[in-house]
C-alpha cells in the first residue's frame, strides 16, 4: 500500500519513545503522574512561569540530547523516495527534522523555538538556554523525571529563586516555548494546512499516537469520511482503530525500518 506513494504521516509521542522521550499515554504513561502546564496557568502570573521555566530548563537537557531513532530516519527515507508526501507531527521534539525529514508540520509547535507573548518575536531555545544558564549560575537542580513536553519534575525548594528572563526584542516581554499548551488552540492556518495534506493523501499513516485528543484524531476522522485508507502503527490500542484499514501493534523503529527496506528491495527489483 505504502509503495504506491501519496502517504501522509501523522506521528505522535510513541515515535519518539525509542529516542528516550517518554510518552504521555503509551506503555510508560507519563500523564498518570504528570499534569502538563496549561496556557491559563502559564499566563496567570510570574510564580507559575518561574515554576515552568525552572523545570523546563532542566528538562531541556534531555530534549537537546535526544537523537532521532530508526523510525524517524525511515520516515525521512520514505520521504526522499517520494512515497511520503507529507509529515504532520504532534511531537514538539524536532526529531523528524533531525532525522532528515523536510517540510514537517509541527501541529503543536516546537520546543526548539521561543515566542514572546508581548511582541510575537521568535527566538531559538539554544539562545534562551544560554541566557537562563547565565542568569542562574548557582542553579544545579537535577530532574527526577522528564516528560514529553520537556517539563522535568523538581522539588519546590529547587524552584524558589530561579531567575526568569524576558524578551530581548521588546525588552522584557513574557517568553513562552513556541508550543501549544493544554488549554490553547492550534493556530487555524496550521490546522487547515494539515487538512489539505490529509485530503490529498492516498493513505494516512498514523505512527505512535493513541489518538486520544481530537487535535490528532480529527485527521483520521476526515480521512475515513473521504474514504482515504488509514493505517495505524502504535503500541497498544488507539481511539482511531475503528476507522483503520490496518492496525499494527509493534515497536515503531523496527517496523518502519522493515517497510523502508521492503520499499528499497521492491524498487531494486523493478529496475
Ligand atoms: Zn517581545
Written account of the structure:
The chain is α/β, with parallel strands linked by helices. Helix content is 35%, strand content 15%. The protein has 9 helices and 9 strands. A 6-stranded parallel sheet has the order 3-2-1-7-8-9, sandwiched between helices. Strands 5-4-6 form a 3-stranded antiparallel sheet. Strand 4 and strand 5 form a beta hairpin. The protein starts with 6 loop residues before the first strand and ends with a helix. Residues 116, 118-119, 121, 167, 169-170, 173 line the site of zinc ion.
Provide a quick synopsis of the model.
The protein has helices at 39-42, 46-65, 70-80, 95-98, 125-135, 156-159, 188-199, 214-225, 252-269, and strands at residues 7-11, 84-89, 104-106, 109-116, 122-124, 175-179, 203-207, 230-233, 246-248. With 271 residues, the chain is α/β, with parallel strands linked by helices.
What tags apply to this protein structure?
elongated, three-stranded antiparallel beta sheet, 9 helices, 9 strands, alpha/beta
Amino acid at each position: 500500500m505504502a509503495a504506491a506513494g501519496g502517504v501522509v504521516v501523522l506521528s505522535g509521542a510513541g515515535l519518539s519513545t525509542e529516542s528516550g522521550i517518554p510518552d504521555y499515554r503509551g506503555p510508560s504513561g507519563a500523564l498518570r503522574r504528570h499534569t502538563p502546564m496549561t496556557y491559563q496557568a502559564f499566563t496567570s502570573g510570574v510564580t507559575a512561569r518561574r515554576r515552568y521555566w525552572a523545570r523546563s530548563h532542566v528538562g531541556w537537557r534531555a530534549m537537546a540530547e535526544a537523537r532521532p531513532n530508526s523510525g524517524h530516519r525511515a520516515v525521512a527515507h520514505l520521504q526522499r523516495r517520494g512515497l511520503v508526501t507529507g509529515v504532520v507531527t504532534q511531537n514538539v521534539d524536532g526529531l523528524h527534522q533531525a532525522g532528515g525529514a523536510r517540510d514537517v508540520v509541527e501541529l503543536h509547535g516546537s520546543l526548539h523555538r521561543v515566542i514572546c507573548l508581548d511582541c510575537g518575536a521568535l527566538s531559538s531555545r539554544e539562545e534562551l538556554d544560554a541566557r537562563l544558564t547565565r542568569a542562574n549560575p548557582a542553579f544545579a537542580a537535577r530532574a527526577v523525571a522528564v516528560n514529553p513536553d520537556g517539563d522535568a519534575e523538581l522539588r519546590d525548594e529547587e524552584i524558589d529563586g530561579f531567575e526568569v528572563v524576558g524578551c530581548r526584542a521588546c525588552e522584557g516581554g513574557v517568553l513562552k516555548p513556541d508550543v501549544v499548551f493544554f488549554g490553547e488552540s492550534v493556530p487555524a492556518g496550521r490546522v487547515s494546512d494539515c487538512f489539505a495534506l490529509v485530503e490529498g493523501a492516498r493513505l494516512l499513516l498514523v505512527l505512535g499516537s493513541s489518538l486520544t485528543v481530537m487535535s490528532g484524531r480529527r485527521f483520521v476522522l476526515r480521512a475515513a469520511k473521504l474514504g482515504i485508507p488509514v493505517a495505524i502503527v502504535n503500541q497498544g490500542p488507539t481511539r482511531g482503530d475503528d476507522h483503520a484499514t490496518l492496525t499494527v501493534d509493534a515497536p515503531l523503529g523496527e517496523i518502519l525500518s522493515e517497510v523502508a527496506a521492503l520499499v528499497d528491495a521492491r524498487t531494486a527489483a523493478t529496475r
